[in-house]
Amino acid sequence: MITQQKKLVLSQYTGLYDILVPADHFLRRLHDDIDFSFIYRELVDKYSESMGRTAYDPVMMFKYLILKVISKLSDVDLVNEVRVNMAYKFFLDMAPEEMPVDDSTLCKFRRTRLRDTNLTDLLLAKTFEMAEGKGILRRSDDNRIHIRAIIDGTHTVSAASLYRPVPALKEWSKKLRHQVYTLLPEMEGRLRTDKEISSRDLTGEVEYCRALIAAVEGLLGEAAEFPRVKRVLNRFRELVDDITDHYSYSPVDPDARVGHKSADTEFFGYKTQIVMDAETDMVVGVRVTSGEVGDALPGREALAEVLAKGDFKVDEVLGDAAYSGQPILELAREHSFELLAPPHPNLGSGIDGRDGFTFNKDADMFICPNGHLAVSKRSVTYKNDNGRKATFYTFDRAKCSVCPQREKCLKGAKTKTFSVTQLTPEQRRLLEHSQTQDFRDRRRERYKIEAKNAHVKRGLGYGRAMFYGLDMMTVQCAVTMFVSNLKKIYTKIP
Question: What span, in angstroms and rounded, lies between the C-alpha atoms of 432 and 427?
């Protein structure tokens, strides 16, 4: 049950705040400048008006989330810090002698109250409103805010560990056999083991696991309805499906995926496309995806969301080679902004996104629709076709052999290859323009997005996920960019 009456802090010790929390303290300024009642209006539908005990104030719980991003502490450590930190208590509208909430309440709030909310747009819009009120963002004669956007992607490592596919399958197949033998001792030894299968033979292990599932279902019959066996069997089946779908598995963070910072460097987690205004260094749009997704398509979505906001007019977009593909070129023509992104020599402008294959600029390889990175490439010149050049990307045979889309992709072949025509005429013109001095001068400000990435990662803990799941990663992104924009606003005003 939620109450609409704001808590009145009555304490003989409130005067301590005027002594211990100075007027220029970031949290005091945040407390005094922003009316957080918009959080209440957004979350009120998540609570019952008449059932249950009185809930903690959603505004206070959201402020805990802001403090978590600023402090980079765990829930337990954050609660302990609030107990002794007067600035934190002032920001939370607590009396100096008041005790904080239990740490489990913070997790409950995130999981049950923040799902299915448009928190990112809500928080960014609040910072735009504040920046415009303080004269940092200004409208032009057309009553719109003109921005020069910089776009880039950054990765966030999952808080969970990645299980390698074959060891995970071996572990769960052992659990399933153990449950069967515990329930029906007379069946011990009747199920084939996977000891003879190599720890590198994913194809063989997947085939064994599917055969084991079929054998258990066939041999047990009605016994398969026993809860303990059925739970392990269902979870084991999901694990096999997960690994064949995306070749990775984490029991704690099922939405995280393996991405690539280079052809040889992997990370397990998420990627975020950040769109920033070059003049004010404020984040104006974001898009969070799992780690295996390329930059072009989610980057286009992030830009499209910014363009959909009627208050903004994007004049130009600065980016690296990952954003020079056809999806963003079409967006540039549609919305009349100039794209300052040098095209990659091996990426034809009409290719990125074709048949679900996307280009990973960092690894210099293509990613298939199932999220797997190509393992090699070779270039071919067709002398009988005006010297046309193409690049062929080859994918891992072992991964393709267990992929659920193998029938569609391989079509009888043993290895999947994907060909790309190099440098179409439109992209060749863009490449020629990228070599001019004017292009270089206008792209010099792109370093600002790298500084922004460093700030949110090192200063606000965005380099590592604080929570599990894509939904909670989106919440962390929203609060992080909200705090980042507020810090930037306060650096631009006295």
Answer: 9
Distance between CA atoms of 106 and 93, rounded to whole angstroms? 17
Find the distance separating the first CA and the last CA of the chain, reported in whole Å.
Answer: 42
CA dihedral 470, 471, 472, 474 (to 10 degrees): 80
**What is the 3-state composition of the chain as percent helix, strand, coil, each rounded to the nearest 5?**
50, 15, 35
Residue pair 291/271 in contact (Cβ under 8 Å)? The answer is yes
C-alpha count within 13 angstroms, C-beta hemisphere, residue 341: 31
Asked whether 419 and 391 are in contact (CB, 8 A), the reply is: yes
Q: Determine the pLDDT at residue 5.
A: 60
- Give every residue of the chain whose pLDDT is below 50, as ranges: 349-350, 385
Per-residue model confidence as pLDDT tens digits over 214-229: 888 887 765 556 788 8
325 token code pair: 């593909």
Task: Assign 420 to helix, strand or coil.
Answer: strand
Nearest residue to 475 via CA among 72, 116, 26: 116
Q: What does the pLDDT read at residue 350?
A: 42
Helix (H) or strand (E) holding 359: strand 358-360
pTM of the model: 0.82
φ, ψ for residue 213, nearest 5 deg: -60, -45
Cβ neighbours around 174 below 10 Å, total: 12
Tell me whether residue 22 is exposed, middle or buried, using C-beta atoms within 10 angstroms of its C-beta: 0 to 12, 13 to 18, 19 or more.
Answer: exposed
**pLDDT reported for residue 310:** 82
Structure confidence at residue 224 (pLDDT): 53
The pairing of beta strand 266-277 with beta strand 145-157: antiparallel
Please give the Cα distance from 50 to 3 (Å, whole number): 9
CA distances from 212 to 175, 192, 206, 241 (A): 12, 8, 10, 14
Q: Which residue has the tokens 């499906």?
A: 241
Sign of CA dihedral 473, 478, 479, 481: positive
Secondary element (H or E) of residue 331: helix 326-335
Please check whether residue 417 is in contact with residue 394, taking contact to mean a CB–CB distance below 8 angstroms.
yes
